[in-house]
Amino acid sequence: MYKIVHKHVIALDIKKIDITAPDIASKALPGQFVMVMPLALMHAIPMTIIDHDERRGLISLLVHEVGPATKALGGMSITDEVYQVVGPLGQAAQMGKYGLVICVATGIGAAQILPVCRGLKKRGNKVVGIIGAKSKKELMLEAQMRVVCDEIFIATNDGSYERRGLATTILQELLNKYKVHRVYAIGSVDMMKAASVMTREKNIPLRVTINTYMVNGLGTCGSCRVKIGGGYQLACMDGPEFDGHLVDFQDLSQRMNTSGDWENNIRPVGVKTTGFGGLRRLFWPSTKK
Amino acid sequence: MAFNKKIAQDEARRCPQCAEATCLAGCPLGIDIPGFIRLLREGDTAGALDRIKEQNPFASICGRICPAPCERACIFYADGQPIPIRELECYAADNGSSKLKTASVPQKEKVAVIGTGPGGMSAAYYLAFQNFQVTVFEALHGPGGTLRYAIPDFRLSQKVLDEQFDLLNSLKVEIKTDKVFGPSLRVDEIFMKGYKALLLATGASVPVMRDIRGIGFSGVYYDHEFLCRLQSIGKDGVVAQARRQKMPGLKTVVIGRGPAAFDTARMSARLGSQVSIIIDGFEEETGVSDDMRKEAQQEGVKILSLRLMGIVGNDNGFVRGVECQNMEIIEGQGGLKLEVSKEAPFILEADTVIIANGHKPNNLLRHYLPQLKHDDKGLLWTDGKTGMTSMERVFACGSLINPDSSVAQAIASGKMAAKKIIQYLDHEKN
Hints:
The structure holds two protein chains of two kinds.
Chain A: E1 2-11, E2 14-20, H1 22-25, E3 33-37, E4 45-48, E5 51-53, E6 58-64, H2 68-75, E7 81-82, E8 84-89, E9 100-106, H3 109-122, E10 126-133, H4 142-148, E11 151-156, E12 163-164, H5 167-177, E13 182-186, H6 189-202, E14 206-209, E15 225-228, E16 231-234, E17 241-243, H7 249-256, H8 275-283
Parallel strand pairs in A: 9-10, 9-13, 10-11, 11-12, 13-14
Antiparallel strand pairs in A: 1-2, 1-7, 2-6, 3-4, 3-8, 5-6, 14-17, 15-16
Helix pairs in contact in A: 5-6
Chain B: H1 5-14, H2 23-26, H3 33-41, H4 45-53, H5 59-65, H6 69-73, H7 85-95, E1 110-114, H8 118-129, E2 133-137, H9 146-149, H10 158-170, E3 174-176, H11 187-192, E4 195-200, E5 206-207, E6 220-222, H12 223-231, H13 238-246, E7 251-255, H14 259-270, E8 274-279, H15 290-298, E9 302-313, E10 319-332, E11 335-340, E12 346-349, E13 352-355, E14 359-360, H16 364-368, E15 394-396, H17 407-429
Parallel strand pairs in B: 1-2, 1-4, 2-3, 4-15, 6-13, 7-8, 7-13, 8-9
Antiparallel strand pairs in B: 5-14, 9-10, 10-11, 10-12
Helix pairs in contact in B: 1-3, 3-4, 3-7, 4-7, 5-7, 8-17, 12-14
């Protein structure tokens, strides 16, 4: 049912895939995500819907291959079927007509900011995008961002493309220069924390999107809890977008490493690994839906 | 632990068949307890099962995980040897074959039920039994709700749970998984498809977050979080197996006193961890049945009476231990009491801390049905007479209106909601 119809590599270890899911495509809003279980008996991974095509019933996802589940999803080919896709989940990003809006993203956050920029642009805002990446190889969605943003700034940490430095440096410069009405920040905790400090000084509203560890994205367990203004809220139900000035970033950075490194280094043990064929037999559901 | 025929009959014979049976008052479902025990005594297991199933369609679930308030109400409870009603129910469910009718052709109105937990299951059963066309929507990949993801395998196996859904299937109940009420299934959509009534049985699953010092350290889990990660749908997969090895660590401390605390404690004890449960009171004051407490202690779970002061971690942000204070027994008015001693607090070493502090419903209804009325405690409001929420044709049952209810209470609540829905639809027709 959830067939992969299109797939291409857009950056180092990052692939964009289109999946047929008409029910989800007809309801998705910017900022919402889906839980994807690539093969049976794997854990589900939360993924932002970066684009949706209602007419063809397609949703686009960006796969960053870091763990076993994302690697399995990245390894699937066109016409393969994804085992399970649940969504759209979470609350849509807050949107309206504000004026000048800056959207900052680092790393995989660029995938999450793209639908937000698109929505903001549609509502008549002037959208300025800032993308930060480690190097040119890891920079992604530049072309798409250039289409939806009025102006775009790019920073790479090693200086291999455009400006050398951090995305937050550019943000600071822009905040000093112009009257900004709102900032959206998605990316590493350090970046969002820095953005929070900068915007609070100037009293500019900030929205941040939080990617805490999720088990099933349905509000059943509370592992994605975030401390917001003293109380805990769930990123899967009440988020993933929150007011950036209320988030407790120290708590958040602790929460982000809860799964530990071991979760990303799991290999099938005691199984003959004869290429993907063997893995495929291992993971593939015996009872297909 | 399952009874064989001899033990079951012996235990059933022990029942004095009181004229005014006290156990009846204990059962939220109103099962005819002396009646089915009498049938068991005569060796009529099928008859006993039918007698149970008149009130409780899911006897094999309740026979395993019910906290058995009936045993506490038994007149032999004070002697320490109550009639093992729960185990007898389990025996009847496993060995008897029900003669009640199962197949029926649904021809009445369409009813939608959200959630396949105990409440939703029982409501679907009773509605389908009255020939309504029932569709149950489940957000997760496998039906069962809390019974599947938050009850460990050793208490309720997946096979037993699947049997219950076979029973529902035989009643032509349609179960649709992967459908999240709210974002992927709107209310107006349900009514547009021709459903005449909607029952919300989404339950209470989000842990009540307690503000304990140091709760943000890595290695601190909530009960459902811990069980979900080990037990979620991919539990046979590579990831879940690796988690089973790594997650519980070597020393686990469980904070809490309900059934969920004991489930998580036993789960990590079985995975090879040294487990202690900290409760703020006497050992006997834990909110679970004596059987369950003894079973946990047999498996190596220690129950300590300590006052929790906070959680301490190391420089890397991982849990190092739990800071607590000893309790002293003090004789005061109204018997013995426990009070915090004057000694300095000490650190109980642990690499995993699990907090089991009760659950509340998630915010889904507040986000997607903001017009629903909530009472001052923050729970969903329902009309006492009709069972309806403040929205026409929308009903609610289970933990949504009574949080932390036991499985038997949830089944009873689902049964009641089904009755109310039938009443409403019949009234509407005339």
